[in-house]
Amino acid sequence: MKEVYPTAHQYIWDGKVEDSNQFVVEMQRYESRIFIDDRFPKLMDKKIPCLSINDGIFTTVRHSEQVEGIVLRH
Fold this sequence. Notes:
This protein is 68% helix and 11% strand. The protein is mainly alpha-helical. A two-stranded antiparallel sheet has the order 1-2. Strand 1 and strand 2 form a beta hairpin. The longest helix is centred in the middle third of the chain and has 40 residues.
């Protein structure tokens, strides 16, 4: 990761050095905001059946391409 994503690596490293537990909590909250507060409502507005578990959004095969498009666009 350090070689391919040096900025992200440094950010993570710095966060873990200061307080690794707090850093993990903050990253989980950020992830929740991305999926639960942003992408999930867009799917629900389109009445797409879906379920969010951790960092994944699950749906039917029929809706998979539409979900992938929404997730990647937003």
